[in-house]
Amino acid sequence: MIVVTSLLTNPILARLADSRRILVAGAGGGFDIYSGLPVALSLLHQGKEVHLANLSFSALAGLPPDDWAADDLAVVTPDSAPHQTYFPERTLAQWLRLHGYPPTVYAFPQTGVRPLRAAYRALIELHGIDAVVLVDGGTDILMRGDEAGLGTPEEDLTSVAALAALDGVPNRLVVSVGFGVDAHHGVNHVQVLENIAALERDGAYLGAFSIPRASREGALYLDAVAHAQHHTPEHPSIVNGSIAAAVRGSFGDVRFTDRTRGSELFVNPLMSLCFAFDLPGLAARCLYLDRIEDTFLMRQVHSRIAEFRESTVTRPPRAFPH
Fold it and tell me: How far is it, in rounded angstroms, from Cα 148 to Cα 59?
């Protein structure tokens, strides 16, 4: 169903106008939750109750029993696992405390769809969540499966599948930010645009908006990314570093970490755009979502997608017109 709004209305905020308790979650692990900070902070500044969660690449198994709200649902605070050097959820919790925001970030371990859905359900019931915004730093969450390259879709689409069947949540949205950053993972961005056009025809594309550097949320996002880079110098986020560089107005092969040595980045203004989608509509276009539905382990998700790719005729990559 197409909802008519004003041209000047932010598509995410319009869809969430009547929501009161909102979960903003990182779809693909690592620092993905940072990509959702501008939306989360904007909602907080409107007086909404906002909770943060992330599919985690951190070593959650070492957390004590008191740090678990449910199976596969860790409660991360600024003081969690102080001896771990790589812990994006804890680093974000520390930044939130510094700025006076609720300093809790929930973390999901890497699992298959079934356990992740159960963990989401537990978190949604714990806080009476009435809307979920799933955020991907990059565009591989938009890949339906027959593209020339899928990037790294396993975690992203596990998150999509986990939430697609939770019909009790009135609003389930997807935000993709960082257009172009997945090129080094083989994503063809002409096909990304082709997919967005198809989602528009289906009524699942809600529109796009930018992260302005001059906005309160844009400035706080830049500060959060800088804080994370300072506290995780050995493994800074390439995705959020690229998005932050784009928000600052940088362009081209911008260097902010040795992790990108040997590759060429193309930081550009499109990286600061947030593309918004209806999650059930996005899920309906994925060609292999049914194949990963009954998975319990992330390695099962990997193998199911690989099996699907072996039997699929892929669309040839296309170049942008010159």
Answer: 33
pLDDT digits 0-9 by tens, 123-143: 999 999 999 999 999 999 999
Kindly give, in sequence order, each residue whose CB lies less than 8 Å from that of residue 60, ignoring residues fewer than 6 positions away.
Answer: 74, 107, 109
Report the predicted TM-score, pTM, of the whole model to 2 decimal places: 0.95
Q: Is 295 left (phi over 0), alpha (psi -120 to 50) or beta?
A: beta
**Which residues, 6 or more positions from 7, have their beta carbon under 8 angstroms from its beta carbon?**
none
Cβ atoms < 10 Å from Cβ of 250: 17
Residue-range domain boundaries for the chain: 11-213+273-310
Among 30, 310, 34, 311, smallest CA distance to 156 is for: 30
265 HSE (CA, 13 A, CB side): 27
CATH number of the domain at 11-213+273-310, please? 3.40.50
Helix (H) or strand (E) holding 213: none
- Angle, to 10 degrees, between the axis of helix 216-231 and the axis of helix 88-98? 130
pLDDT in tens, 255-282: 776 665 666 778 999 999 999 999 999 9
Q: Give the list of residues 6+ apart from residue 311 with CB closer than 8 angstroms, or none.
A: none
